[in-house]
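Session log. Operator J.P. requested a structure for one protein chain; no other inputs attached. Running the standard single-chain path with token output.
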Amino acid sequence: MIIKYFSNYYTRIKETKKVARDKNNAVWVIPIFDSILVSIFLSWQLSIGIWIVFDTWQNTQVYPPWYMDMLWQVSSFSFTIFLSIIMLTILDKMILFFIHIHFLVNKLVLRGISKLDMYLWKKTGRDSVITNAIWKMQTKFMSKSKNQRRLMTVAFVGLIVTYYGWLIAT
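Structure written below.
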């Protein structure tokens, strides 16, 4: 029974890749990364909430209950417990949510680029200024060697991870 659940859950996560492909989301890993980061953040906040509740509960008692030490020991694993629950139950729904968010953001960005291109065309008479600039940047990136592209990608991912870490820390 439990093996069937895990196999079904694994197929549901694999099906999110098809949804991402249907939504023209080229990089399926980014919604997964976002989902895992949100799961970690949510688990961390829930475990801090549990510790605050236990501390308040213990301090309001005249004599702490006999089971309080056991609750504190179990609560030290609350981050892992919450993360496991989230990962094993709703991760596929979170991935789908972030796929839809990325689709909406991509659509809005492309619409904004086309409107800005149209505005610049009306003002300057030059055709597709921003689109051509993006195309030039992409061709410069693709003309680099494979190792340089990997290094640039790793640096970019490192910046994103640093940014997410900074957001979570503040």
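Operator note: The first helix runs from residue 2 to 22.
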